[in-house]
Amino acid sequence: MADEDLTAGYGTQAANRSPIMAGALHVILLAACSVFLVPFIWMAVTSLKPIDQTMKETMIPKATLAMLNGKETLVVRKEQLKGESLLVRQGGGQDAGKVKLIPALFKDAPAVVNGMAQMKFTRAGREEYEPELVKVEVLRTCPKGYWLVEEWAPEFSQEREENQNKELAWDCVPESELKEVPHLFWSNYKSALSRMQGNDEGSWYSVGFFRYLLNTLFLCGMTVTGMVVACTMVAYAFAFLEFPGRNVLFGVTLAVMMVPFPATMVPSFDLFRSLGWTGTFKPLWVPAWFGGAFFIFLLRQFFLGLPKDLLDAARIDGCTELEILWHVVVPLARPALAMVALFQFLHCWNDFMGPMLYLNDSRQFTLSLGLQALQSQHGGTPMHLSMAASMMFSLPLVILFMITRKTFMKGIAMTGIKG
Amino acid sequence: MVLLFLVALFATAYWFDRAPEIVQTPEQLTITYWEKWTGFEGAAMKGTVDLFNKKKIKNAKGQVIFCKYLTTTQVDRKSLLAIAGGTPPDLCGFWERNNHVYADMGALMPLDEFIKRDNGTGGFDTENYIPIFLDSCRHRGQTWSLPTTPATIALHWNKDMFRRAGLDPDRPPRNTQELEEYNQKLTIKDANGRMVQMGFLPPEPGWWHYAWPYFFGGKLTVGLDKITANDPKNIEAFEWLMKFKQGYDPAMLLSFKQSFGNAFDSPQNAFMSNKVAMVIQGVWMANFIRFHNPQMDWGCGPFPTSFDTKGEPVTIVDLDIITIPRGCRNPEEAWQVIKFINTHEGMEFLCGGKENNGGQGKLTPFKTNTPGWIEAHTHKQLKVFIDLARSKNAVAIPQVPIWEQYQEEMKDAFEGAWLNKKTPAQALQAVQDRMQPELDRCNQIYNARMQALKKD
Amino acid sequence: MAAIGRYKGWLFVAPWVIGLSAFTVYPFCASIYYSFTDFSVLVKPTYVGAMNYQKIYEDDLFWKVLKNTFLYAGLSIPAGLIISLSLALMMNGVRRGQALYSIIFYLPHLMPPVACAILWMWIFNSEFGLLNNALRPILGLVNMSPPSWLGSSDWALPALVVMAMWGVGQTAFIYLAKLQDVPQDMYEAAEIDGASTLQKIWYVTLPMISPVIFFNIIMAIIGSFQVFTAPFMITEGGPDKSTTFMPHYIWDNAFRFLKMGYACAMSWILFLVILALTALAFRLARDRVYYAGK
Questions:
Q1: Do residue A416 and residue C250 have CB atoms under 8 angstroms apart?
Q2: B162 by DSSP, 3-state: which?
Q3: Do B448 and C46 make contact, defined as CB atoms within 8 angstroms?
Q4: Which of A252, A360, B191, B416 has its CA 20 to 30 A from that of C150?
Q5: Min Cα–Cα distance to chain B from A248, Å
Q6: Chain-chain contact of B378 with A159 (C-beta, under 8 angstroms)
Q7: C240 and B194 in contact by Cβ < 8 A?
Q8: C245 part of contact set with chain B, CB < 8 Å
Q9: How far is CA C258 from CA A356, C31, C48, C229, C248, in A?
Q10: Of B350, B367, B390, which closes a domain?
Q11: Domain architecture of chain C: domains with CATH
């Protein structure tokens, strides 16, 4: 019989496809793929760029390297010298001992005269002139065109208390000593993680990304299980059981999907509030255990495609409906059920409205809420961090999808089992 | 087997899914504060709350007040639902635009009793305030909130771009005529006719389309019951704005400003990437310039007007406010937090405290500040914004309860006129026709409600 | 036994019925009630009769938004159908690489809406966006320049439709799963009769997967009238309200302008519109959808 053919796998039409046709199809598909992939690649690449390169079309993030204090360090170009400058070390004054860069000419006269110069210092954010000339030691001359570069440390902020006396390494180097190399800024991920944690304090599993992940997994687990269980039962009834009012109820099921969500938000919130469920996860997963219109509809369509004679045979054998459901339908419909599970998982993972409305404490937040932490009040988003966070958000989904995809594709043995 | 799995699942759910309980002990009373900020602004606010908690202020029962700060997305909507449902937090951080609307709906607790009682104690004094900020928190004779962080808006310009165009970098345009002239000099196109840089682009940032009339001496409302969207000066303002797109495709200009859609906090923002020379922005702009383009040589000053302001420049005053929602269980303790934030100590710490990593980088609502505070502030030109707030021509947001919708309509009117779908006169007349009935109805409902309350 | 048997079905659907009533029917009925009141969430609703509906009729913006919504649906439903079906058919027609293709086409669904929004704003940016950089040289040949997509009130909506097409992966995936269901012998029979590839598709494949096509069309109708997140984040309803669709307008009225009664009235109208279109679809499908199992 044709058993082998059935389980041979893909594309029942593919066997007879001519190679030219197959090749043409591949070309078109690959072209389509690139369209679909470009945004994802962009997201991945942007997540590894430093902020000033995020909007440029460069596909490869670049970093500038220079030798600072004998070590090759990642640097940021601060400015290009517009005129000759001198690297001096202060012998006195407010910043005694510090090395500074000053223009060689100060008001059209040499800045350093007899080892003395007019220096500036910064206190409390203000730049002021030293009251007297300060003794300085000229270390080096930097000609015009040199670059003032500073160690790259995006999370370093001079304003922070602990950094008051620290200084980032810096130097004055010619263009030729700067190297532009491709560099993946993995630190964006670390920064994104700490931004998501925001102002919460706690251990790694009770706040921040991992906590949000845990919360999200919990919710997804609860809703997926609930949905699959409930929708299977209900779709089974719609597909196979005759009962009065079935068509009307099915119509209502469809109608439910047409209700615009803002209309039901306030009464729903009121309902959950009177149950005392606001501030918990319950409003998010309990409804899933009662089924969902979309999946009921989806499963019903699939079930209707199953051969009825199997069920009739089972009924003749005296099985109860539940047994038929469990032993006959479910195994046959496993790919469809897996699909429901996957879609519900995705929906729950991406859901933003629900958690926003019902969760108050940031330790309960889901990942989708956690992503909000990367947006500041005036509508801004640090692109590279946002993309890093989005990558972390999406990657588990991609992996999940890759793992479960096979369940849908292979082993669909429900058809053709007729004589 | 399946049953076992389900039982285990529900057991996990029961254990995991408990609302974090706030347990009040005899030693400590915890109150919750929902606020909008994230990032460095959120950190600044949390720092201020931490400072309050360190003080260990006690309430009448001898409990130490502990304020729990919660970052909340869409805090106004969420609080609205919570208040309606009777389970609000103890403190809510809103925007000025919510003040009048929520007050009219009875969502907020008036603070007058507290203010009267505590005025002049503990560093809190209503005399401290630049009047416009305090007035913005009042509505129909009562005070419904107090400021957390105030803001004013000003013209920001790129000095380097001025220099390159041959303009004096320290002399901004003083009136609308000059702004037009500066714009001519600063707008450059390349050989293909593509825009390289613009002098002034009205759609950027697109947050204050309701503000333009004020720079022309126009106004949007009279009192609480009259809409004046079609005031001739308003139309004049819009027509002036339309001049900036003459000769170009307006849609192209709109996308020129877009910089990846309101990605304002990015080095690609039109102003910070040296694509637009002059922009109207708020006091927070300095923060973002510092983050994304610290090399930029920039200046700020009053936005030019069409009329002689006689030394009292025009600006829009905006605030973030803190309120006690109706239904709050611990109003007295909540008030203590509000009071602390509104002292010099709290406010200066929040708006620019050095110990607070620079705070939010804004001005305080007070007439004077502790000596040295401005000098240590990260905003190098803060005085500009403070002077603007003290100006007699500083404008507070109209107090009409339909403000959100009115604001949106003004934005639509601007865009419609900008994209040549309507003339400014038509656009503003449409707003007038739509908004006056709305306002009338809103006031009618409010009056009816007040009547009904009086009867009880 | 027989009598109980007839009501067994109710037992099975009981959880759904309970959930339905509590979480959907009750809120919806509540909102229908609100549509006849003046309700701003905090203030108790006051009955105003059909005033909200009257105002909707007079509201220019409502009609504009409704038109936008129909336009969007009218463009995205057919486009989505054709593209996803084509992709699925093509994927089904090759022996190797299906796994990879289906994953790649599905990727957009796995990205968070925020990232998608930023991404598309960049692509459609008229100055340095990917799309216009590609279009400019081509259009330059005929002396035209590409439109300023998101800045133009004429082109923003089509831009959103294009973005929506990026999400066809889910539908294509469903089609692909069902395509694998089509029994081999039907194709063999058709080939014996001398059918070409196109004829095979038209006479064998499409009818066999028609339940799923029908399902997806219904979903597309319902979905395209409820699009909210993308326009909300990307264009914020503009420019000049050209990408404001019904859900967004309802949302604004409900939560920004606090005209809850008005918003509920509009929701009810939207619901009726979707219902009417779906009923129409059902009517048309009655003779065309083939359920193999029956």
A1: no
A2: helix
A3: yes
A4: B191
A5: 31
A6: yes
A7: no
A8: no
A9: 19, 14, 16, 20, 14
A10: B390
A11: 59-285 (1.10.3720.10)
Q: Between C13, C110, C271, which is nearest A259 by CB?
A: C271
Least Cα separation, residue B256 to chain C (angstroms): 7
Q: Into how many domains does chain B fold? A: 2
Q: How far is CA B369 from CA B45, B129, B353, B375, C233, in A?
A: 19, 11, 12, 11, 40
Contact B122, B334 (CB under 8 A): no
Answer yes or no: is pLDDT of A6 > 50: no
pLDDT at A378 over 60: no
Q: Looking at beta carbons, which residues of chain B come within 8 Å of C238?
A: 411-412, 415
- Interchain CB contact of C115 with B (< 8 Å): no
- More confident position, C99 or A419: C99
Q: Do A356 and B70 lie within an 8 Å CB cutoff?
A: no
CB within 8 Å: C125 and B84: no
DSSP A147: E
CATH number for the domain harbouring residue B43: 3.40.190.10
Dihedral, B318, B321, B327, B332 alpha carbons, nearest 10? -150
Would B341 be classed as within a structural domain?
yes
Residues B220 and B104 in one domain: no
Half-sphere exposure at residue C235, Cβ-oriented, CA atoms within 13 angstroms? 35
The CATH code for residues A194-409 is 1.10.3720.10
Half-sphere exposure at residue B110, Cβ-oriented, CA atoms within 13 angstroms: 12
Chain A contact for B71 (CB, 8 A cutoff): yes
Q: Is the pTM of this model over 0.95?
A: no
Same domain for B183 and B261? yes
Q: What is the pLDDT along chain B (456 residues), one digit of tens a residue?
A: 777 888 888 888 777 777 667 778 888 899 999 998 887 888 889 999 999 999 988 888 888 999 999 888 889 888 988 898 888 999 999 999 899 889 988 899 999 999 999 998 888 999 999 999 999 999 989 999 999 999 999 999 999 899 988 999 899 999 999 999 999 999 888 777 677 888 898 888 888 899 999 999 999 999 888 999 999 999 999 999 999 888 788 887 877 766 544 455 566 677 887 888 999 999 888 888 887 777 788 999 999 999 888 889 999 998 999 999 999 999 999 999 999 999 999 999 999 887 777 788 889 999 988 888 888 888 888 999 999 999 999 999 898 888 989 999 999 999 999 988 899 999 999 999 999 998 998 888 888 888 888 876
Q: Is residue B422 domain-shared with residue B310, that is, in the same domain?
A: yes
> Do both B42 and B83 map to the same domain?
yes
Where does chain C show beta strands of DSSP type E? Answer: 37-38, 46-47
Is position B342 within any domain? yes
Question: Contact at 8 Å (CB) between B402 and B308?
Answer: no
Does residue B19 belong to any structural domain of this protein? Answer: no
Of A125, A161, A377, the CB nearest to B355: A161
Residue of A nearest to B36 (CA): A377
Q: Tell me, what's the ipTM?
A: 0.86
pLDDT score for B430: 93
Instruction: Give the span between the Cα atoms of A377 and B405, in whole angstroms.
Output: 20
Question: Residues B274, B415: one domain?
Answer: yes
Q: Is C47 in CB contact (< 8 Å) with chain B?
A: no
Which part of chain A has CATH 1.10.3720.10? 194-409
Regarding whether B277 and B130 lie in a shared domain, the answer is no
Query: What confidence score (pLDDT) does residue C8 get?
Result: 72
Interface partners of C (3+ CB pairs, < 8 Å)?
A, B
For residue C97, count CB atoms less than 10 angstroms from its CB and return exposed for 0-12, middle for 13-18, buried for 19 or more. Answer: middle
Cβ contact, residue pair C40, B253, below 8 Å: no
**Which of C42, C125, C257 is nearest residue B105 as measured by Cβ atoms?**
C42
Reported as a single tens digit per residue, the pLDDT across B372-386 is 888 888 888 899 999
Q: Distance (Å, rounded) from C-alpha B434 to C-alpha B444? A: 16
Phi-psi region of A198 (alpha: psi -120 to 50; beta: other; left: phi over 0): left
**By residue range, what is the domain housing residue B368?**
25-144+320-390
Put simply, the chain C residues between 181 and 240 with a CB less than 8 A from any chain B CB are 234-236, 238-240
**Contact between chains at B412 and C41 (C-beta distance less than 8 A):** no
Residues of B in contact with A381 (CB under 8 A): 263, 265-266
Residue B451 lies in a domain: no
Q: Say yes or no: B447 contacts chain A, CB-CB below 8 A.
A: no
